[in-house]
Amino acid sequence: QVQLVQSGAEVKKPGASVKVSCKASGYTFTNYDVNWVRQATGRGLEWMGWMNGNSGDTGYAPKFQGRVTMTRNTSTTTAYMELSSLRSEDTAVYYCARGRIHDYWGQGTLVTVSS
Amino acid sequence: EIVMTQSPATLSVSPGERATLSCRASQSVSSKLAWHQQKPGQAPRLLIYGASTRATGIPARFSGSGSGTEFTLTIAGLQSEDFAVYYCQQYNNWPLTFGGGTKVEI
Question: How does the average pLDDT of chain A come out, rounded?
Answer without folding.
Answer: 97
